[in-house]
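Re: beginner question about structure tokens

> Can someone show what the tokenized structure looks like for a real chain? I only ever see the sequence side.

Sure, here's an example I had lying around. Input first:
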Amino acid sequence: MEALVQLGMVSDSPSDAQTDEIRETKDYFVHRNGVRYAGTHLIIDLWGATNLDDPDHIDAVLREGALATGATILHGHFHHFSPNGGVSGVLVLAESHVSIHTWPERDYAALDIFVCGDCDPYKALPALKKGFLAERVQLAEHKRGLIG
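And the corresponding structure tokens:
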């Protein structure tokens, strides 16, 4: 950028030191146990679950779970495929997202919660267990954007 500034002109762009400082203050990467990464992504399977065909109920449960993680909800959208059919939906978070796809005919729901910063996706689990009364929960964790 400096090469593009003509002699006698003042650049409005920040110096490299200022740019690094700006980048650091806007970096919501997580740093835990000596590891730096973008965020934690939980893949959750609920088996023997209930209330999987009610978009309003699903929205309320996911909102409760998202807020428990410490996230900021920006927008939600849920689609009901037919009466008594499955629901697909997403909550867009300032810190990423929560999504769900349900198969009420199999009492099964597939969810994922991806959050960055200080949010803890594990704090959503009690709301999910209470809201869907799942008999069995399968869980996998992935650290996204792993730096090391």
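Each token stands for a local structural state, so reading them left to right follows the chain. Residues 55-69 form the longest helix (15 residues).
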